[in-house]
Amino acid sequence: MYRQPSIPSSNIDALEDSLLDISTAPTTPDGSLTFSPVLQALKLHDALEEAALGWGEQRASSSSLDATMRASGSGVKNICCVGAGYVGGPTAAVMAFQNPHINVTVVDRDPVRIKQWKTKHLPIYEPGLYEILRIARDGSKDCSFSNEATRFDSLDSMSSASSSTSECESRCGYHRDEVAVKARTPNLFFSTEVSKTISEADIVLIAVNTPTKMRGMGAGKATDVTALEAVTREIAIHAKPGAILVEKSTVPCRTAELIQDTLKVHRPTQSFEVLSNPEFLAAGTAISDLLSPDRVIIGSSSTPAGCRAAETLASVYASWVPRHRIVTMNTWSSELSKLVANAMLAQRISSINSISAICEATGADISEVAKSIGMDPRIGDKYLKAGIGFGGSCFRKDVLSLVYLAESLGLDEVAEYWTSVISINVWQRERFVRRAVRCLNNTLVGKKLAVLGYAFKKDTNDTRESPALECIKLLLDDCPREIAVFDPCCDPTTIKVEIGKLVGKEVLKDNGGSIDVYSDAYSACADAHAVLIMTECDEFKTSPSPPSLGTKTTSKKRPIDPRPFQRLEPTETEILHLQHFLTSTFSDADPLQRFETEPKCEEGCEVCFDGENEEEMENTVVLSGSKEEHGKDNLDWARIAYHLQKPKWVLDGRGCVDEIEMRSLGVRVDGIGRSGWGERR
Ligand SMILES: NC(=O)C1=CN([C@@H]2O[C@H](COP(=O)(O)OP(=O)(O)OC[C@H]3O[C@@H](n4cnc5c(N)ncnc54)[C@H](O)[C@@H]3O)[C@@H](O)[C@H]2O)C=CC1
Ligand SMILES: O=C(O)[C@H]1O[C@H](OP(=O)(O)OP(=O)(O)OC[C@H]2O[C@@H](n3ccc(=O)[nH]c3=O)[C@H](O)[C@@H]2O)[C@H](O)[C@@H](O)[C@@H]1O
Fold it and tell me: Domain spanning 22-50+59-140+181-337: which CATH class is it, in words?
């Protein structure tokens, strides 16, 4: 099911190695169903529609100053983004895509990561990322298409955008506008030449990792700014006079001061502006979040130079973000806003999880409670999905950073309040595992458990701070015969390597332990005494799906044809919108014939070699992973149930399965937030 790009480790010194360990880059699961261009089109559709609408609003209200800024980009020619990770890579790609007149270069000290960004085997998986990268990184050809919307009554006789033109023309007998889109030269680059690229940049974005400090003062809470400090030094030495420095990384409040101090030490006679521009994208929806952000926050000093710098950065965003969504404020507010945004989201999850325990004990149903409270617009329905708690690289670290800040300021009550968000999260996982063990007669000895879902959320291969792993560690204490793990977005080898690293190689089946990782759900579940659902993947859901609350919903509706465009020079967002419509309608990865030839991998590329006939693919333009044309199939629970040991158990940590449907298959369900078998016994 997967093509495994085995990533050789970088050959850099020990300190850097340890920092790179913190910065994990899961591999791209080319074989994942989520790579289907049709699915990607459907998922991005809403974001694009919104972006196009936003442009409508903006066009109606935009000032001539905005228009001038967009056209000129306020003189910005080169942007350098330091850090080619989950934030740096996609952010730079979208910035370059939307600003063809600006060269954006992403630099990283990890040569392996940079090499991956230059090939079709990207180091991270995000729906829609590759299409954007293909245009910005590889350039594009001239293309043209009819400005007439596709007529669905004649779809059968059409196969592409251009054939739709001739069909319509011959039928209606008059000439419609053709839209011509000019070729683009590449303007997105990836490099390991950090200092050289910094020295050429008008704007330097800092998007390096800022994990929790693991030792010394503030260990376990404070932010480790080692990587940020190292980059700041590089910038201080090499940046050209007047360059604007931008914190994209999530940083403690008043970090801009630290950066200014470093700059002053190295360049005492020159002044630089430091902006705070935190990123709010979420894993799995990074591209739609970037294309259509709720807001772009820019913090600056209130001096004229600070405001000018903020305007310059705003002008880069204004190429695709409506001006009213770009909010400027003071630097400290901006830095703090990011921590608070994550803390508030995490707090909602802990709040609903705390209520889930009350539901289990009283007979109330958490999904019904969440639905009813979420209908109050003052509360809203997002981030109210109870489960085994939040994971991911940021919520925990950012809440802890806030706790540390409060403690440093002597605000103990505040620190205690936010600490409880983390405590509930840990407690919730433990509760789930306790319930699972209790359902299985308080013993796991000799039993096989199937774990469905390993990534910290659906639609991503990001496994940092995976709640599943924390639960697996707890389950191991009860000595099960086997824990069989499956995740539709993660590569089994990567999961094994990670478990070996974080828990110990001896726990893996290959080394005589009990954990095995499977590439399909049915083998993982065969003969299991219980199936534990740990990630809210759509594939795991029964039908009809339980009400979905909380996480950003993905539209299942077919994209609509955005034509006719009002102007004969559509924006990149509009062209992308059309491309998604055509891709989903005609299952063609390059319906506008815009893509340049995909970069070839080196001779003997391990990823290509792994099960694929590269020669066959060479002359075809494909989007990475687009060979899977079908959608994500929901699991056949009847098939799984048939092969489970009796009594058949599903322990649902993410509210994925319908209890009545499972009962009809002879399966007992126990889950989060409703009284299940656990209480009835
Ligand atoms: N992952 C996410 O979804 C989000 C992350 N953030 C924040 O963005 C920042 C970056 O996060 P990720 O992209 O997830 O991290 P990451 O770990 O995926 O990427 C960071 C990159 O920085 C590179 N790097 C570190 N030190 C360097 C140096 N001195 N010179 C050159 N390159 C260097 C690393 O090699 C790595 O490739 C963090 O502060 C995080 O809190 C913010 C919003 C979302
Ligand atoms: O700073 C960051 O790194 C990012 O952190 C989160 O994004 P992310 O962690 O990628 O994903 P989320 O969708 O927020 O989910 C986080 C965790 O919460 C869990 N969750 C989410 C929503 C919910 O209702 N219930 C719930 O348990 C998810 O399963 C997942 O484990 C924020 O949503 C982003 O805005 C932010 O930029």
Answer: alpha beta
* Chain-centroid distance, C-alpha 70: 28
Strands 178-181 and 143-146: antiparallel
209 lines ligand 1 (CB under 6 A): yes
| C-alpha 86 – ligand 1 centre gap (Å) | 7
CB neighbour list of residue 408: distance below 8 Å, 6 or more residues apart: none
Ligand 2 residue neighbourhood (C-beta within 6 Å): 250, 279-283, 342, 345, 349, 383-385, 387, 390-392, 394-395, 456-457, 536, 550-551
35-49, 236-250, 253-267, 433-447, range with the lowest pLDDT:
35-49
Count of C-beta atoms within a 10 Å radius of residue 503: 16
Q: Answer yes or no: are the C-beta atoms of 380 and 450 closer than 8 Å.
A: no
Apex 592 CA angle, 588 and 594, nearest 5: 110
Consecutive H or E run containing 103: strand 103-107
Which residue(s) pair with 445 in the sheet? 480
Mutate to test the pocket of ligand 2, among 342, 371, 393, 672 (most ligand atoms within 8 A of CB): 342
Distance CA 458, CA 565 (A): 34
Q: How far apart are the first and last CA of the chain?
A: 40
Q: Is 335 in the pocket of ligand 1 (CB under 6 A)?
A: no
Structure token digits, residue 308: 């000018």
Does residue 56 have a known ligand-binding role? no
* Cis peptide preceding 647, ω within 30 of 0: yes
Pick the range with the lowest mean pLDDT from 140-149, 315-324, 334-343, 639-648.
140-149
Task: Please confirm whether the linkage preceding 123 is cis (ω < 30° from 0).
Answer: no
Reported ipTM: 0.99
pLDDT at res. 319: 96
Residue 476 burial (CB count, 10 A)? 17
Mean pLDDT of 109-134: 94
Tokens representing residue 568 in the block: 């004969």
354 residue type, one letter: S
Confidence of residue 47 (pLDDT cuts 50, 70, 90): low
Q: What is the distance between the alpha carbons of residues 261 and 592, in angstroms, rounded to a whole number?
A: 50
Is 394 one of the catalytic residues?
yes
The segment(s) of the chain belonging to CATH 3.40.50.720 are 22-50+59-140+181-337, 341-543+634-671
| Alpha-carbon dihedral angle through residues 130, 136, 139, 141, given to the nearest 10 degrees | 80
Q: CATH number of 341-543+634-671: 3.90.79.10, 3.40.190.10, 3.30.460.80, 3.40.50.720?
A: 3.40.50.720
Is residue 612 scored above 80 in pLDDT? no
* 69/294: higher pLDDT: 294
**Tokens found for residue 141:** 């050809």
Whole-angstrom Cα Rg for the chain:
26
| Both tokens assigned to 418 | 């936010």
Q: Are 189 and 182 in contact (CB under 8 A)?
A: no
- Compute the mean pLDDT over every residue in the chain, rounded to the nearest whole number: 85
Contacts of 607-615 with CB under 8 Å at 24 or more apart are 607/3, 607/4, 607/5, 607/6, 607/30, 607/121, 608/121, 610/3, 610/4, 610/5, 611/3, 612/3
Q: What is the predicted pLDDT for the residue at 43?
A: 52
